[in-house]
Amino acid sequence: MLQKSVDGGLIERWFGSVGLAVAIGVAYYLSARLSLLLVSKPDGVAVFWPAAGIACGALIALGRDARLPVAAATIIATIVANVLGDRTIWAASAMALCNAGEALLVAVLIERYFGVRFNLDRLTHVLGLLAAAMVATALSAVGGTAAFRWFHSPAAPLLTIWYEWFASDLLGILTIAPLLIGLAAAVRKPPLRSELIEGIALAAVAEMIGIIVFLPPIPWKTVVPIAMLSPLLLWLSARCQPVFASAAAFIVSLTIVLAITFGIGHFGDPDLPIGDRIVTAQAGIVSVALCALVLAALFAERRQHAAALIESEARLQEALSAGGVTAFDWDLRTGMTRRSENAALMLGFDPKNPPSATEFLARMRPDDLARYSTLLQSVSPDRPSFGLRFRFARFDGREIWLEQSSRAEFDAAAHVVHVRGLTLDVTARKQAEEHQSILMAELDHRVKNVLARVAVVAMSTRQGSGSIDDFLLRLNGRIQAMALAHSVLSQNRWCGAELTDLLRQQLAPYTTDANASISGSEVMLTAEATQALAMVLHELVTNAAKHGALSSPDGRISVQWDRHSQGSDAASLTIEWREFGGPAIVGPIQSGYGTNLICELIPHELGGKVDLVFAAEGARCRIEIPLPGDATPDSVRTASFRERLVSVEL
């Protein structure tokens, strides 16, 4: 299958090359036969050779893949056209090689210096085609002159033959090749509909050149005819792609060649010497062709530059808008201001009614306006730049922060006459700075609170410890309890913590799946409640591990809680701590730092209540604290505050 596909591609390429060779050969032969109808006397060299333009234009337009079929078609067509005339087979063959080499040389030079996608939309390309054509035709004329003298007319003057060969081929390239190049470019980028409509000016060109042909022979010559064609060429060049101007030049050239060949009108006047008529025709063709190509290239470059400028301006506006930047120009002598297009969006005004400098300044805060005036008065030619960050009331009422970087321009007396500068919307940056300041202040506050609490815990732990080892053990446990509370809060960005998560972390070091259970509705604690409850729970669980239920293999603890609503804006949380199966409690319990912390921390920091009882069957602690109205997790609130009972075995 792959081999068949490869063979099919080769066959298709072969038929394409053959078809191209036949098409180029027929066109080349017909144009060559037309050229041989008008030859110079007495040497018999064709004075117009449009066939050269066909070969060169096809090679430039179609690329290097067309070189072999076009060169072969050029050689065959040249030989046939000359042999059917009065040339010998040897002369025709030598001239054929010169013609093919000429076309190949032009194509190679164009590709070498301008690339494969060649178009006549730049002046440098037009001049490049002219230069390549002159080099190739000059060299071809040398070979053609030698072949003509050797095989056809040994007595013909060398310089005359060389010049006529050079001029005829150069004219052919300048008139035909641009049309083929333009048609290939139009296939790649089709003309706009408006260009096709305005292209009807080509009919006017044909009509005008017809009138010019029949003008009286004296004193018109070439200047006035070209002047009459200039408006049409200018119109086509300014409004359409270069191919239309190339088509106009082709129409003019073809008309002139036909007129002088068949003796029509001014160029076929038998009263004028044939040499004068040929020179007039050649001058007219060169003038029209170069004028059309240069004008088309200049206007094409202008359109390209305009399109690039528009695109650049659009990208600049997009960049300015994306970066929140506008540009402005303020003339202090007239009071006129100009702003970039995105200023309307940034400042909130109607683009059709931009504000004046006075209106803009009136929307600055008075203290910022005073600082701006001071800065403007302090600039000098040595220090023309200044900047200011200020508050600005947008035209829709919203206040924003702007940062303006400006540069002043001065007159001969060192007075400020212009202020220019890129205004930046720094509202988001200012808000971020303010938010950062708030965060830093909050962090400072929290760090101080933590350090103060650690200091109090350390001091109180020291007073109730019998040894340094006991002190370090107790202090480490209490600090770890505080650290666990901070860890839970950090996971929730200090927005609070769920009571279930807090209980799991505080009980985990001391309990197992068999000796502890927790149950209750989901409740979101505030950061303050989380830290206070963490220390209370730590004291309860460590006391149970040392003296209570968790010190006995058969003991267990139970923690239950419930949330009670007290209207739409308030609620309370009740936590029941109970111990079972531990050692019997006998006699009164001596209060220490841990007991005092349990009983006093909740009322002091949270405004709650604590009821701690050391009963014979085990310790019991009832904690009641107030909660904000939204102390239910988001997942629970979205279910219309439907509480879900959880039971977790630790």
Give the SSE layout.
Blueprint: H1 2-36, H2 51-62, H3 67-83, H4 89-114, H5 123-151, H6 158-188, H7 193-198, H8 201-213, H9 223-239, H10 242-261, H11 274-322, E1 328-331, E2 337-339, H12 343-347, H13 357-362, H14 366-378, E3 385-393, E4 399-410, E5 416-420, E6 424-425, H15 427-463, H16 468-491, E7 497-498, H17 499-507, E8 516-521, E9 524-525, H18 527-546, E10 556-565, E11 570-580, H19 593-606, E12 609-615, E13 618-628, H20 634-637, E14 645-649
Parallel strand pairs: 8-10
Antiparallel strand pairs: 1-2, 1-5, 3-4, 4-5, 4-6, 7-9, 8-14, 10-11, 11-13, 12-13
The overall pLDDT, averaged over residues, is 74
Stretches with pLDDT under 50, minimum 5 residues: 1-8, 631-650
Q: Count structural domains.
A: 4
Shape: elongated
Count of DSSP helices?
20
Sheet/helix structural class: alpha+beta
The profile of the biggest β sheet is:
6 strands, antiparallel
Return Rg in Å: 49 Å
Distance between the first and last residues' Cα: 70 Å
Tell me roughly what share of residues is in helical segments: 55-70%
Compute the number of strand runs: 14
Strand content: 5-15%
Give a quick summary of the entry:
With 650 residues, this protein is of the alpha+beta class. The protein has four domains: 11-177; 191-319, no CATH class; 328-425, PAS domain (Beta-Lactamase); 494-649, 2-Layer Sandwich (Heat Shock Protein 90). 60% of the residues lie in helices and 14% in strands.
